[in-house]
């Protein structure tokens, strides 16, 4: 769902999925690449996203 939001909302600049235990490295990458205007992706306490990805 988040990928679709980014893809179809071309002006979205901020997405905060902090504390979402289901977000993975792959999911974070997909969100980050889905919108050209994205400036901030909040990943606080997304434990499946490795710090090396950030």
TrEMBL record:
InterPro entries linked: LRR_dom_sf
Record-linked Gene3D superfamilies: Ribonuclease Inhibitor (3.80.10.10)
Name of the protein this chain belongs to: F-box/LRR-repeat protein 17
